[in-house]
Design goal:
About 35% of the residues lie in helices and about 25% in strands. It has an eight-stranded mixed beta sheet with strand order 12-11-8-13-16-17-18-19, sandwiched between helices. Strands 2-1-3-4-5 form a five-stranded parallel beta sheet, with helices on both faces. The protein folds into two domains: about 170 residues, Rossmann fold; about 210 residues, CoaB-like (Rossmann fold). By secondary structure, it is of the alpha/beta class. Bound molecules: ligand PMT.
């Protein structure tokens, strides 16, 4: 079932490390190539010889100990992995991952990984309940990491509660599920754009907008969770792209157009959540514009309408979704954009309403369809809305196939 899969298995220092030797053995028996990273603390519980014995592969412990197959250990262990599993993940390792530290082989590998990451916390129940640990888990979830909740029961320290590492068979099942995405978007190539473009005025200034990228990143994350292959074309944001997405970073509308056109041919669905500047300075000053007593007049010229261009060259089988950020006449303006850009669906947000639009973690929208239907969507988390939008996209595609 796992034939040919490459799994990097990070083991950190908890008593449950002994169970992970069994997990490594089960993974190997099912055909996976398992590369174990032992932290210094883990090696106090179970020695490297055990893991080398059950996996048939050398065990990695040192950030700087390169070998012919793993010249730069943290990069090679990250880049060849189909899945990074961290079990048990101690409170200390969770804190390091959440903070983005990279001071040992396991944490550096986790930072370099672009594959899905499965984290299996295990610790004393009071430690697990501690707000610091729960906050770190929240942060890891927001990075798109999969968290396998610990089981409840009696722990090695004698206390009873939630904190036990799940049995190896349970972890194995989760690994199989993650490695064989059977989400309802599997087989689909989707393109999501996010963030606000920046249009330079001079080397230090630009015109932009208030988009944080949260809506677009949530759409990318939801699509990955449901098995799609995701390309995320993103204008600058403060967010970390969801692991597993192919990320193309751009700044200006024209760069975004180029990046979108470069991949459009192979896409099944395009969702343009990015806030694209409609205008850019006609001339970009070579040097920083100096302040003077006189008023400064900037001449702006029109940017290309990226979505409009995709709509004009719409291929059969492609689903095109746009967003409309409005401050008045929401339905009227959104309906006009839907028609003019030849879209299947437009997500209209009134960005003057608290809890909707730019920067917030939630959104409140209306969905307008090409057949004239309109659906009101109450305030919800952007990730939840992203899943709802993907549900609608799937519905439209099924309808089109009939
Ligand atoms: O990023 P967040 O902080 O989470 O905020 C989310 C959001 C408000 C940015 C998002 O929900 C949203 O509304 N995005 C679209 C904003 C926008 O540019 O709307 P528009 O009405 O100007 O454009 C309509 C559509 O055409 C959009 O899909 C846009 O990506 C696209 N467009 C616009 C102009 C242009 N030159 N090219 C385009 O492709």
């Amino acid at each position: 079932m796992l034939q040919g899969k490459q799994i990097t298995l990070g083991v950190s220092g908890g008593i449950a490390a002994y169970k992970v030797a069994d997990l490594a053995s089960k993974l190997t028996a099912r055909g996976a190539a398992v590369h174990v990273i032992l932290t210094a603390a883990a090696a106090k519980f179970v020695g490297p010889v055990t893991f080398a014995g059950v996996t048939g592969n050398p065990v990695h412990q040192d950030l700087f100990a390169g070998s012919p197959d793993f010249a730069i250990p943290h990069i090679d262990l990250a880049s060849r992995a189909d899945l990074l599993v961290i079990a048990p993940a101690t409170a200390n390792v969770l804190a390091k991952l959440a903070a983005g530290l990279a001071d040992d082989l396991l944490s550096a590998t986790a930072l370099a990984a672009t594959c899905p990451v499965l984290v299996c916390p295990a610790m004393n129940a009071a430690m697990y309940r501690h707000p610091a640990v729960q906050k770190n888990l929240q942060v890891l979830r927001s990075y798109g990491y999969h968290i396998l909740e610990p089981a409840s029961g009696r722990m090695a320290c004698g206390t009873v509660g939630q904190g036990r590492l799940p049995e190896p068979a349970v972890i194995l099942e989760e690994i199989c599920r993650l490695l064989q995405p059977q989400g309802d978007l599997s087989g689909l190539q989707v393109l999501v754009t996010a963030g606000g473009t920046r249009e330079p005025i001079d080397p230090v200034r630009y015109i932009s907008n208030r988009s944080s990228g949260k809506m677009g990143y949530a759409l990318a994350q939801a699509a990955l969770q449901r098995g799609a292959r995701v390309t995320l074309v993103t204008a600058p944001t403060a967010l970390i792209p969801p692991p597993g997405a192919e990320v193309v970073r751009v700044e200006t509308a024209r760069q975004m157009l180029e990046a979108v056109l470069a991949v459009y041919e192979r896409m099944d669905v395009v969702i343009k959540a990015a806030a694209v500047a409609d205008y850019r300075p006609a001339r970009v000053a070579e040097h920083k514009i100096k302040k003077s007593e006189a008023a400064l007049v900037l001449e702006l010229e029109k940017n290309p309408d990226i979505l409009g261009q995709l709509g004009r060259h719409k291929r059969p089988g492609v689903t095109l979704v746009g967003f409309a950020a409005e401050t008045s006449d929401l339905l009227q303006n959104a309906a006009e954009k839907l028609r003019r850009k030849n879209l299947d669906l437009i997500v209209a947000n009134d960005v003057t309403v608290p809890g909707a639009g730019f920067g917030s973690d939630t959104n409140i929208v209306k969905l307008l369809y090409a057949d004239g239907r309109v659906q009101d969507v109450p305030q919800m988390d952007k990730l939840e809305l992203a899943h709802l939008i993907w549900d609608e996209v799937l519905g439209l595609r099924r309808q089109a196939e009939q």
